Amino acid sequence: MSGHGFHVHGAHDHAVEAEHESSLGQYIAIFTAILASIGAIVSYQGGDSQNKAMLLKNEAVFLKTQASDQWNFYQAKSSKLHLMELATDVAPKEKQEFYKQQKGKYEQEKQAIKKKAEALDAESAKTNKLSDEAMISHHHLAQSMTLIQIAISLASITVLTRKKWLFAIAAIAAVGGIVLWAEALL
């Protein structure tokens, strides 16, 4: 009923509007509850991947330190080998055979140390790569969580403003967050 510039809604109009508003509110409540649950899982996985990356990085540094120790040991054996070569050249004839044997011993030890150092370097590089991959996963999970939080915020604003286009943007942000989550899992 309208009169004198006022528009009056009937009881039926109010019932239709209330039904429409409550169903939007219910959809958004369900939407945010699902996103909050997914967000909790993503958050846990993000923390787990970050911890994994840090542990792997720590292991890579430890292996690199062990490799460095082996290379230092290798260098020490090289110095001793050079001293034996010098001693062979300047020692009396009766001592030269001893120094030649020492040279052979140091050469063999050097080769074993070199293999161990190279193996530790390779293992360090492999572990470092795994750490980097875990950090990439962590970044995807952090970005996923950010988009999920944006989606929840936009959905909450939709309830207050009744602007359905905000809910559409929230849904797009949620889909983006879920896609990033899936990428992190692969």
Average pLDDT across residues?
89
Radius of gyration: 35 Å
Distinct helical segment count: 3
Measured between the Cα atoms of the first and last residue, the distance is 61 Å
SS-based class: mainly alpha
List SSEs in N-to-C order. Answer: EEHHH
Strand order of the largest sheet: 1-2
Basic shape: rod-shaped
Residues in helices, as a percent range? over 70%
Low-confidence blocks of residues: none
Q: What is the percentage of strand-forming residues?
A: under 5%
Number of strands: 2
Major sheet: size, sense and barrel closure? 2 strands, antiparallel
Task: Please name the defining characteristics of this protein.
single chain, 186 residues, mainly alpha, 92% helix
Description:
- The structure is a single chain.
- With 186 residues, the protein is mainly alpha-helical.
- The chain is built from three helices and two strands.
- The protein has helices spanning 11-90, 93-161, 164-185, and strands at residues 2-3, 6-7.
- Strands 1-2 form a two-stranded antiparallel ribbon.
- A hairpin with a 2-residue loop joins strand 1 and strand 2.
- Helix 1 (11-90) runs antiparallel to helix 2 (93-161) and helix 2 packs antiparallel against helix 3.
- The longest helix is centred in the first third of the chain and has 80 residues, at 11-90.
- It is rod-shaped.
- The model has no long low-confidence stretch (mean pLDDT 89).
